[in-house]
């Protein structure tokens, strides 16, 4: 009469002697695929401040601010408000320079609410970048000046020869 | 001597595990018998249709994941197919095949939840664990191809987001090879169980005419013996190229509604196998402008989701954001007949009947 019940019990008994399918999580971890969307990562030096990621985000998670130094855009702020992130990857897809990428880190819990928001750009990074641009600009200006001087030195000679 | 009796109200839910989410039914009971049942949805309402009006067409896709979160891929599909119809975009063949593969995998995943959760509703938690074990394989496949397990946001207007990664096809084939054995296990563990059968057979019989009248769809409709599956009746995508059957029930009771899903999973596995064999090479995204700006107008497109017919109605005013988006959510429509189905049954059967409809609250409330 209770044939079905006994068959079911047989199945569970059979399973009991088979290897486990679960893993002991914090110690053991399953491998994650490359496309996994975990904590976002931002590469400051790659970013060209094109605002594509800001416009691609469905939830307006990203705040991007720039400052213009010597006609060049410097990213001064790149805030990622993770609590509103849908982890859809549209920002990563929109970025032309791969400046924003999702890592495999999925343990995103924090003890304090302010820690959820990620402020990627640190003041010293902005200072460094600004200094780099200024240095590059100064070098460029110096090189140009040197070139001009060289030409001037050659030119009067050329002028004399010509006359 | 007569005993004075009176009816009383009982709130089932919104916080009750057997309602599969936050769903409330106000039951009027006469002793243990249901006299009247008033479903109260809306506890998970997030206003996705309204949110869509302030997002660009691509940005709506992640929100559709959150409709039927057990088959996010199918919800993506239901939305993009409507926008593609509106824009007249042609989807490359490879993309269509990839969509069929992931869509059918999502259907299996959703039906596995339905099957397992139904077993748990009836009182056999073991079945739940077994189906979730196999669903995990599908979730791993989704994670591989889209980067997320439940909210893939994988489809794009005009194609899919990424091509099939290395190792996906092998893993998918391995899953399909192991799947018949798993179905055998479910049949032994759940379907064949005498207690399960006693609880579900001849419970809440839904006649075919009534089901059609209430415009029910999906496994609930087919269990009543109505042969209506969009994939066969009005093939969209590349479904006309596959050989499969539309499983149907005979009586339309809870058992049929449960068993149709198991049979459907077998058919889905068959479709995936064929799609993997026929998978062509080529691009995965059609010719779509970078800024999606459909012409003024409206479009309505439907797909067969795991719960029934999922339709999307999109109205465009020519800007980058949809003027109006409406989703025809099968779970919500399928609930329309709940009151009459519950009437006259005992309170323990309420859980069995509700579970057999297989609702997802993300979809009911949108």
From TrEMBL, chain A:
The entry's function note states: NDH-1 shuttles electrons from NADH, via FMN and iron-sulfur (Fe-S) centers, to quinones in the respiratory chain. The immediate electron acceptor for the enzyme in this species is believed to be ubiquinone. Couples the redox reaction to proton translocation (for every two electrons transferred, four hydrogen ions are translocated across the cytoplasmic membrane), and thus conserves the redox energy in a proton gradient.
- Cofactor details (free text): Binds 2 [4Fe-4S] clusters per subunit.
- In the UniProt record, the signal sequence range is none
What is the protein's membrane topology class?
A: Peripheral membrane protein
User: What family is it from?
Assistant: Belongs to the complex I 23 kDa subunit family.
| Stated name of the protein | NADH-quinone oxidoreductase subunit I
Subunit structure of this chain's protein: NDH-1 is composed of 14 different subunits. Subunits NuoA, H, J, K, L, M, N constitute the membrane sector of the complex.
Task: Describe the reaction catalysed, as an equation.
Answer: a quinone + NADH + 5 H(+)(in) = a quinol + NAD(+) + 4 H(+)(out)
Extract the GO molecular function terms from the UniProt entry: 4 iron, 4 sulfur cluster binding; iron ion binding; NADH dehydrogenase (quinone) (non-electrogenic) activity; quinone binding
Needed cofactors, names only, are: [4Fe-4S] cluster
Q: Under which main EC class is this enzyme filed?
A: translocase
Localization of this protein: Cell membrane
Instruction: Write the gene name.
Output: nuoI
Question: What residues bind [4Fe-4S] cluster 1, as annotated?
Answer: 47, 50, 53, 95
Protein source organism? Desulforamulus putei DSM 12395
Renumbered residue ranges of the record's region Disordered = 142-163
Q: What is its EC number?
A: 7.1.1.-
Start and end residues of each 4Fe-4S ferredoxin-type domain: 38-67, 76-105
Database matches in Gene3D superfamilies: 3.30.70.3270
**Which keywords belong to this entry?**
4Fe-4S, Cell membrane, Iron, Iron-sulfur, Membrane, Metal-binding, NAD, Quinone, Translocase, Ubiquinone
Positions contributing to [4Fe-4S] cluster 2 binding: 57, 85, 88, 91
Q: Where are stretches of biased composition, namely Basic and acidic residues? A: 142-152
Q: Which Pfam families match?
A: Fer4_7
Q: Which GO terms describe its cellular component?
A: plasma membrane
Q: Per its UniProt record, what InterPro entries does this chain match?
A: 4Fe4S_Fe-S-bd, 4Fe4S_Fe_S_CS, NADH_quinone_OxRdtase_chainI
Q: Where do the TM regions start and end?
A: none
UniProtKB/TrEMBL annotation, chain B:
Domain (NADH-quinone oxidoreductase subunit D) ranges: 121-295
Q: Catalytic activity, per the record? A: a quinone + NADH + 5 H(+)(in) = a quinol + NAD(+) + 4 H(+)(out)
Gene Ontology molecular function: any one? quinone binding
Its annotated compartments are: Cell membrane
Describe the task this protein carries out. Answer: NDH-1 shuttles electrons from NADH, via FMN and iron-sulfur (Fe-S) centers, to quinones in the respiratory chain. The immediate electron acceptor for the enzyme in this species is believed to be a menaquinone. Couples the redox reaction to proton translocation (for every two electrons transferred, four hydrogen ions are translocated across the cytoplasmic membrane), and thus conserves the redox energy in a proton gradient.
Alphabetized PANTHER family for the sequence: NADH DEHYDROGENASE [UBIQUINONE] IRON-SULFUR PROTEIN 2, MITOCHONDRIAL, NADH-UBIQUINONE OXIDOREDUCTASE 49 KDA SUBUNIT
Q: Does the keyword NAD apply?
A: yes
Q: What is its main location?
A: membrane
Annotated Gene Ontology cellular components are: plasma membrane
Q: Which InterPro entries match?
A: NADH_Q_OxRdtase_suD, NADH_UbQ_OxRdtase_49kDa_CS, NDH1_su_D/H, NiFe-Hase_large
Please indicate if the UniProt record lists Cell membrane as a keyword: yes
Q: Know the name of this protein?
A: NADH-quinone oxidoreductase subunit D
Keywords recorded for this protein, A-Z: Cell membrane, Membrane, NAD, Quinone, Translocase, Transport
Q: What is its EC number?
A: 7.1.1.-
The entry's family comment says:
Belongs to the complex I 49 kDa subunit family.
User: Which organism encodes this protein?
Assistant: Desulforamulus putei DSM 12395
């Amino acid at each position: 009469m209770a044939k079905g019940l006994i068959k079911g019990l047989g199945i569970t008994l059979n399973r009991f002697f088979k290897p486990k399918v679960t893993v002991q999580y914090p110690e053991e971890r399953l491998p994650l695929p490359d496309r996994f969307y975990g904590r976002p990562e931002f590469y400051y030096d790659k970013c060209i401040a094109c605002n594509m990621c800001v416009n691609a985000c469905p939830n307006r998670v990203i705040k991007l601010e720039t400052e213009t130094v010597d006609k060049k855009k410097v990213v001064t702020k790149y805030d990622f408000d993770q609590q509103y992130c849908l982890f859809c990857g549209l920002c990563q897809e929109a970025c032309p320079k791969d400046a924003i990428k999702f890592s495999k880190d999925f343990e995103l819990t924090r003890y304090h609410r302010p820690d959820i928001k990620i402020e990627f750009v640190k003041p010293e990074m902005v200072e460094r970048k600004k200094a780099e641009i200024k240095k590059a600009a100064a070098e460029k200006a110096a090189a140009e000046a040197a070139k001009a001087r060289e030409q001037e030195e050659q030119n009067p000679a050329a002028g004399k020869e010509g006359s | 001597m007569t005993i004075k009796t009176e009816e009383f109200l009982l709130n089932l839910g919104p916080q009750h595990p057997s309602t599969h989410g936050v769903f409330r039914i106000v039951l009027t009971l006469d002793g243990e018998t249901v006299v009247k049942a008033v479903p109260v949805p809306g506890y998970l309402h997030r206003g996705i249709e309204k949110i869509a009006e302030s997002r660009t067409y691509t940005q709506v896709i992640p929100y559709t994941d959150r409709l039927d979160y057990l088959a996010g891929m199918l919800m993506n599909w239901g939305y993009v197919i409507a926008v593609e119809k509106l824009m007249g975009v042609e989807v490359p063949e490879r993309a269509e095949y990839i969509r069929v593969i992931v869509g059918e995998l999502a259907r299996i995943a959703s039906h596995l939840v339905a099957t397992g959760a139904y077993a748990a509703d009836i009182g056999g938690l073991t079945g739940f664990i077994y189906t979730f074990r196999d669903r995990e394989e599908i979730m791993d496949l989704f994670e591989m191809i889209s980067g997320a397990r439940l909210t893939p946001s994988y489809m794009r207007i005009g194609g899919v987001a990424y091509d099939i990664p290395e190792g996906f096809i092998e893993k998918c084939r391995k899953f399909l090879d192991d799947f018949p054995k798993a179905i055998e296990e479910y049949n032994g563990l759940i379907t064949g169980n005498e207690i399960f059968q006693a609880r579900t057979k001849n419970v809440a019989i839904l006649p075919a005419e009534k089901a059609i009248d209430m415009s029910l769809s999906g496994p609930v409709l087919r269990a009543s013996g109505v042969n209506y599956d969009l994939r066969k009746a009005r093939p969209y995508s590349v479904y006309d190229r596959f050989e499969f059957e539309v499983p149907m029930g005979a009586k339309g009771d809870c058992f049929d509604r449960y068993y149709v899903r198991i049979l459907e999973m077998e058919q889905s596995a068959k479709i995936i196998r064929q799609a993997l064999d026929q998978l062509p090479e080529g691009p995965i995204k059609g010719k779509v402008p970078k800024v999606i700006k459909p012409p003024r107008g409206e479009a309505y497109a439907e797909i067969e989701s795991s719960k029934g017919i999922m339709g999307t109605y999109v109205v465009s005013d020519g800007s980058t954001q949809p003027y109006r988006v409406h989703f025809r959510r099968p779970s919500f429509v399928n609930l329309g007949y709940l009151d009459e189905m519950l009437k006259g049954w005992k309170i323990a059967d309420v859980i069995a009947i509700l579970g057999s409809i297989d609702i997802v609250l993300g979809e009911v409330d949108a």
